[in-house]
Automatic annotation (TrEMBL):
<protein>
    <submittedName>
        <fullName>DUF3889 domain-containing protein</fullName>
    </submittedName>
</protein>
<dbReference type="Pfam" id="PF13028">
    <property type="entry name" value="DUF3889"/>
</dbReference>
<dbReference type="InterPro" id="IPR024987">
    <property type="entry name" value="DUF3889"/>
</dbReference>
Length: 104
């Protein structure tokens, strides 16, 4: 009986050590810039469904990074493309500007 109590105490102790209850963990910390592009595009086209996302290019100059993504959307029976360009500070990751432009 004494062995079972020790065994269960060790088992539950290890279980609690593996679970993190930190309030600092958020979903935003795991977001990629592609996720940000999809989110901003969905804000502009809320009824659309994202079919495909592709990074077109990125460029870093003087502490500023610009990334451009092409998203293929479906709204109703129409498929169309949208270019989403994100400009952000390279060191802090703070977004400076986001442009969502439909494909011509």
């Amino acid at each position: 009986m004494k062995k079972w109590i020790i065994f269960l105490t060790v088992l539950y102790g290890l279980t609690f050590l593996q679970v993190s209850f930190s309030s600092e963990v958020s979903a935003e910390s795991n977001q990629t810039w592609e996720d940000v592009a999809v989110y901003e595009t969905k804000k502009r086209y809320p009824l659309s469904q994202v079919l495909f996302t592709q990074k077109i290019w990125d460029q870093t100059k003087k502490g500023r990074t610009v990334k451009q993504y092409k998203l293929t959307l479906r709204e109703g029976m129409n498929d169309f493309g949208v270019y989403t360009t994100i400009t952000f500070d390279s060191s802090t990751g703070q977004v400076k500007k986001i442009q969502v432009i439909p494909e011509a």
